[in-house]
Automatic annotation (TrEMBL):
Protein name: Biotin transporter
Top-level taxonomic group: Bacteria
Subcellular location, record wording: Cell membrane
Transmembrane segments: 12-30, 61-79, 85-107, 127-149, 155-180
Entries under Pfam families matching the protein: BioY
Keywords annotated in UniProt: Cell membrane, Membrane, Transmembrane, Transmembrane helix, Transport
CC terms in the record's Gene Ontology section: plasma membrane
Length: 189
């Protein structure tokens, strides 16, 4: 006899996943194209709101659903969708977004530096996760540019221009997202 496991998700959780899925798509479309095949979007900042509200389990489901839906052809990524998106330089960030709930869980449990100050503790955890996202995204960009596009000259420009600008903007956005995150959590609990 096989043991059956029932996975029950309440209507409120399904609604939250649906709403956050739609908001994730919208945040990806609010993008400014910059040179070297890159975008500055609100998507990275929005990813930081998914984990605290949905948790690691449902946050992971949401980001995986988003990634799979885009790869299946729904035009939900910053510049479209489809299986060919794997060869775009920004796809590494999408991979990192699916790992974000796990990063956040590990980092937040291990970050006890400012236990007495919730904002600083959350901000430092978010910045550590942001560094991880950008590292994965940057390594993927370099690999795609070098091995798929075949333009090694643009890797230097990429490091000096787009990645630095993108990272600096995300640092500022994550500060404000952390403020919003703490307010949202306070109102939810």
């Amino acid at each position: 006899m096989e043991k059956q496991t029932n996975v029950r998700i309440d209507a409120q959780t399904i609604s939250k996943i649906g709403i956050y899925f739609a908001l994730l798509v919208i945040s990806s479309k609010i993008a400014i194209p910059i040179p070297f095949y890159d975008y500055i979007s609100l998507q990275t900042a929005f990813i930081f709101l998914i984990y605290p509200i949905l948790g690691a389990k449902y946050g992971s489901w949401l980001t995986i659903l988003y990634l799979v839906s885009g790869l299946l052809g729904l035009p939900i990524f910053a510049s479209g969708g489809g299986l060919g998106y794997v060869f775009r330089v920004t796809f590494g960030f999408l991979i990192a977004f699916t790992l974000m709930p796990f990063f956040a869980t590990i980092v937040r449990k291990g970050n006890t530096l400012f236990n007495h100050h919730r904002f600083l503790n959350t901000l430092i955890s978010n910045y550590i996760c942001l560094v991880m996202i950008h590292l994965i995204g940057f390594v993927y960009k370099c690999l795609i540019i070098k091995f798929y596009i075949g333009d090694t000259i643009k890797v230097t420009g990429l490091l000096g221009f787009t990645s630095l600008i993108d990272f600096m903007i995300d640092i500022i956005l994550i500060f404000f997202v952390t403020l919003a995150e703490l307010q949202i959590i306070k109102r939810l609990h």
